[in-house]
Amino acid sequence: MEYEAALVGKKMLGKGNALLTFACESIARRAQPGQFINLSCRYFLKRPLGICTVDETAGTFCVGVREVGAGTRDILQARIGEIFSVLGPLGNGFSFEGVSKIIAVGGGTGIYPLFFALEKAAELGIPAICVNGFRSGADAFLLDECEKMAGKAIFSTDTGDFGMKGNVIDSLETLSRNDWEGAAVFTVGPEIMMIKVSEWAAQKGLSCQVSLEKRMACGIGICLVCVCKVRSSEEGVPFHHVRCCREGPVMNAAEVVW
Amino acid sequence: MVDLSVRVGTVELRNPVMLASGTCGFGRELSEYLDFSGVGGICSKGLTLLAREGNPGCRAAETSSGMLNSVGLQNPGLSAFLEKELPFMQGLGTKVIVNVAGHCTEDYQKMVERLGAPECAVAALELNLSCPNVKEGCMTIGATAEGVYDMLRAVRGLTDKPLWVKLTPNVTSITETALAAQEAGGDAVVLINTLMGMAIDIKTRRPVLGNNTGGLSGPAIKPVALRMISECFRVLSIPIVGVGGIMNASDVIEFMLAGAAAVEVGTASLLHPAICAKIVEELQIYADGNKIDKISALTGDLRLW
Questions:
Q1: Which pLDDT score is estimated for A13?
Q2: Which residues of B touch A (CB under 8 A)?
Q3: pTM of this prediction?
Q4: Which of A16, A62, A196, B156 could form a disulfide with A21 if both were Cys (CB 3.0 to 4.6 A apart)?
Q5: A83-90 and A2-14: which strand pairing?
């Protein structure tokens, strides 16, 4: 179903970021951490946005939006009550199957979908550590919320004006064996960061789920523009293309060909 | 009650609205959103003899009123299609048209032989002589009247099924390639595939698309499609299937007036997966409101100045 959803809440976070809340019971009821929605905008294609949290009682879902171009600018300028056309929840989210502990590693706006994963972990009684890196203190959002959900939270910035100076790998290196042993790593952020995080996880022998981001159109698996490469089991075949929107966006890092 | 049924040669459709190749897969994902028994037909994703992974790198760029794509015919290949996808498509409750692409004449021949066999339950084959995103075959064949003519001659004798020829707008004279398709035994022409274009990232100073160029689709190309259909309608005796930027029923009417017997809706499905059902509904309302008994009467009813 394609839904009509009204914008019911807007919390500006600064630096072109905002949390937007939409009324849509069906999406609120079914959404899982790591899934996304495809939201109409006044330009042409819909814009895929990771779900940040839901309120099943109120029948609302929330997405974190960062202005990256005209489309997201248009979405951010919407007024309360404005109606959007929305598809969702879409794609495969994070799997909590067999997971007894998580380390959620985010880069920048990766914190939005990871917040939803931290919420779910808390709900399931799964201990969680939140590690997030930002460019600077001015780019860091949802900090208190994440701290509340996670048993431990480490924030770092490239500039060092807030939290630790460094990147998420520097933060991960500060974890004790007790912290990381037996954990599943969930990561959302720039590709280069996710590669490094998955390498770190592999070194420690930890499973790692990465949320891939590719330029999308339909979001439902029919146009084949958002493909990513995964390992092939066929001999002599280096990779297969799978749809980020349908088979992803969350993939097992061990299967991804970067 | 208005009669929405139309004919494309011998192929009867319950209404003129079909889903265009490349924007509906094999119907599987869209069937979660759209009841196919309410549309005229579905054209499969472009198929090749062997599976293709498609092009590397970024494959889409938004443009003013449209988009560029450079998917490059990613598809599971003929065998997997016959085994897994065709049976599914046949269960959709609508006419199945298979879009056939290839590198060379032999590829097209093998596919037409297999898909055009009497026992293969497809309503028509749509010969893709127009995909701009592959290095061999497709548009390189469809770019000249000779190429179109020779390909049609090479495959015409291999099947009794209707052959629809999907042509490229990236030519100097669309009537020449359309006439070549007709002369060589094509049963219909499908106008138009995407227009070749480019998008540039000014930060990196590189093309946005990994393939450098891509095919432009969406409302941006509708005027080009209408012009080409109108030109071809005046010289052809075979029917025209119109495609290019259709977003609503009023667009369908324009295409039919220009000369299309039926239409295909493409990029619009990427924005709204159930849009074809809505367009059919709107068509019904339009026809009722304008006292049109038979929608097919609109075809070519354009009075030029």
A1: 93
A2: 22-25, 29-30, 32-33, 45, 53-54, 58-67, 69, 71, 74, 218, 269-274
A3: 0.95
A4: A62
A5: antiparallel
